[in-house]
Structure prediction request, 1171 residues.
Amino acid sequence: MRGAKSAKWVAGAAIIALAATACGGSDSDSGKDMNSGKADPNGILTAQLGEPQNPLQPANAKESQGSRVLRTIFSGLVDYEPGTGKLVYVNAESVTPNADSSVWTVKLKPGWKFHDGTTVTSKSFVDSWNWSANVKNNQTNSSWFQDIKGYEDVHPAKGAPKADKMSGLKIVDDNTFTISLTGPVSYFAYKLGYDVWAPLPESFFKDPAAAGQKPIGNGPYKFVSWDHKKLIKVRKFDGYQGPNKAKNGGIDFKNYTTADAAYSDLRSNNLDWIEQIPTTSLTSYKQDLGDRAIDAEYSAVQSIVPAFYTKQFKGINPKVIQGLSMAIDRDTITKTVLHGTRTPADSFVARGVLGYKPGALGDVTKFDPAQAKKLIKDGGGVPGNKISIQFNADQSHKPWVDAVCNSIRKATGVDCVGDSKPDFQADLNARDNHQVKSMYRGGWVLDYPVNSNFMRDLYGSTAAGNTSGYSNKEFDKLAAEADKAKTLDETVKMYQEAEQLLKNDMPAIPLWFYKVNSGQSTNVFGKIVYGQDGDPIFTDVQVKAKK
Amino acid sequence: MPDATKTQTEAVVDAIAAPSAADGHKEQGKPRSLWGDAWFDLRHRPMFWISSILLLLLLVIAAFPGLFTGADPRNGDLTNHFLTKPDLGHFFQADWFGYDGQGRSIYARVIYGTRASILVGVGVTAAVTLVGGLLGMLAGYFGGWLDSVISRITDIFFGIPFLLGAMVVLNAFTDRKVYVVILALAFLGWTSICRVMRASVITAKQADYVTAARALGAGTPRILFRHVLPNALAPTIVVATIALGGYISAEATLSFLGLGLADPTISWGIDIAEGSQAIRDNPHALLFPAGMLSLTVFAFIMLGDAVRDALDPKLR
Amino acid sequence: MGRYVARRLLQMIPVFIGTTLIIFLMVHILPGDPIRAMWGDKAADPAQVASLRHEFGLDQPLWKQYIDYMGNLFQGDFGKTFGGREVIDEMSESFPVTLRLTAVAMIIEIIVGIGLGAWAGLRAGKAADTGVLIFTLIVISIPVFVLGFLARFVLADQLGWVAPNVQDSTDYAQLFLPGFVLAMLSMAYVARLTRTTFAENLRADYMRTAMAKGLPRRRIIGVHLLRNSLIPVVTFLGTDVGGFIGGAVVTEGIFNVQGVGNLLFKALQQREGSTIVGVVTVFVLVILVINLLVDLLYAVLDPRIRYA
Prediction:
């Protein structure tokens, strides 16, 4: 909080009045402002954050808030280049596979330090992964290690673990170790960019719970304090050796419970970056903020998924689903009801992911009521002539579900209603237990930027993310072959072929890709750059020097 | 306060029960003239007539929404997405109140939403009066252990915050139709009526004419329903009428939180929730359903007020 | 008096146990698994889910969970959240915030409510009286969440008179708007109650006596009338404290207040049983104690009432 408390009330009011009059003002001024002046390498950035749900342990951040903080404190072996999704080495000097991609050798950059001064060695990684994978340590992301040999020993399906080490991890020397996988995975190195693969210092294992409250990492920022539900402070780590050295002095993550509150603080420059523009201001934020408005895509897709175990969709002719897809006016809905926060999807794979092919689904995602009607008729019609779309009411899904239903009703005459579950738990419960009545809302944010993540992990017959009961032997075969391919390029290509197979089978109806709609304050120098996962690259953000 | 019904009824209980309890309900000794007086009094109150006419109109709307608009409340046209602002000159036409985010006529939705709100209000009140009234009567008339048990149960349910309780109960239902919401609200709302009924039955059963009836050999059911109940009914009716408005308000609050009625039922609460997301640029999407909701609650509370004043001459 | 208090305290025990049991059952009977939900759209690992369920005791039969919970509660242990924090810590952060908000609301309610009510009561039957009556009717008719949105939109966003959100809950200036919205409904009731008792007491014998004695009008109103008229109002205010804490769910949500209401709403969404039951437990205790205090205060204010 800047300024005296009593003055802030008045100041806030004055700024709102100013902003209101400035609405029609010249946007070019604010643009010039953004790049004028100097950056202060020690300036502190204030960013929005919700309270992390779990302690700050690398493999325990299943939600975005905890993950946002963890990524500033820990650096992994590799990272993805924004925009292209290409692999960049961070703490690793190299990650190389053997001939069939089943054994990987990791070489570390020597001389890296944790924030407490201890050295980052092979052991820091191996110990960390062994601890995180262990079922009794209750890390929500423990299953990320399942490709590694010996995972069943530390993480049996039932009962206590038989070992506390995975046999697939072998330390060669201080800066080299090998990872043996249960089978070949050509894109394994890509998975290593996720938070869970971070190293942990010796001190962590003495008291993991305490370390979760006061994490010590090897990342560009060191943790300072966590005032629950108020503020998390991280500061630049001067001893950082990685390529992504912080260009600011540190970050104050401030807690907000509503997007509206965060937005009004952004406009009064008490906050430098917000997560999402509140719905109430989506129509006007570009005028409010001028060049400081942020509108960027990220790799996530929203779709509606038929429950193939229901009477309605069991053995249905895929033409019917294609017809339903063509009955949805994606362009109009994204522009009006969704206020431009999404872009129409034209593929199962989200944009920005390796292997995304524009227009991969062709006409199937184009709005064409006549063709939609025809396809549904050719396919034998929708049983019962009525569908429902299940969604959870605790997030703002209702507007688009209503709009999609409306579009389907009007274009095809098939009745469509939203089937709202009060909260996410109830929604998931119905999905996991195969109790969805007709269709459900599906969402998928990338885990790693390879197209296999958007196909095999969702539509494979045995994939854990497949809750619709969809099964296609041909696709399973193709996916298995693709995973065994010699090079990543081949894998990606084979998955692109598999996507065409899915197009004819329609395991889901992709609707649109997500966008980030956000903004930055006048304290920020230059425009904030985003990563593939929809979060800013905080190390690159520069803070303006105070005059 | 979302806890509207509770505070509301509490206030009324205080306003009627508290002052008159001190006086021992002496004026309720002559049953026929109480009701006669009340009716005479009501007829001379403009508030009674205004609220009655309003309510009659709302009931007709709820029963025959098609009479008031030809527009479709469910199917929208996205070309109308907020584009058409209200045109207050276009009486009874689809664009009278403008269009909402889905391009649906707000006027049509306001008209079709009446039924759900009225049903919830009347349904909950009926259920609450029946259950709470019966329990209160039994507790008050028989006293002893039955009274202790019922009173403690009442205390328990009274202790659960109304809105929170309703949220938890409704969370358990996946199919939230009108009757589910009615049951959930009634499950938590019967306590006030029970307390009021118990208090007035206790006063009524001590009256001379009850002793007289008993001396003449009248049976328990006869005493209960012919002598005690008619004399104990007045405060219950007042509390129930006023609470009715509160239940409508509670339903809207729950729908607003995403826990009340669900699609395809058309409810003002849902529309207000959607409208609140557009308040900056299109306040009409919030104002019209909210206005209609407030008007309905207003009519019921005004009626309750008039009835209370008529039944409780002391407050004149 | 002592025996009366003892009896009331004893009566609280079954009520307390019953209330917590009902809330506990309600929370745990709900469909859906909060542990599984931590994984969201992604697939959950069954072995890890089982391990976490065991950690939080969710694999025990329900009756045992309740007994364990109550057993810990009596030792002052409210349990842990799924995030591993002590529920008691979460509550000690949020209760003071809500108390401050309640205090603001209470002050507004008392000043405006009693003021309006007294003003109308002294002019019973006149235009001012009718005006206040209609005003209170309108206030009661508008649901709080509508009032909240409208008040914020008009007073904060359009006019800029007050802060639209609470960023710092120790700043009473920021708490004004949510406090005001929270107070509105009760304020209307207080005004109506005050008006009724004022009008009634104006015709009471002791007023005539005071008037006949030739006491100055200001003294009659200020001392005799006010004191006697405020008894039911005080009762109402007492029961209303509970209503305020409960009513904070909506108000706190709209105005970004990190209080109990917010805590409860979030916990409900995440099905965090220990937090929900913990908050409600404290809540019920507060209401029970306040009710007792109000009844005792009643005796102090009104010499006609004696508890044996």
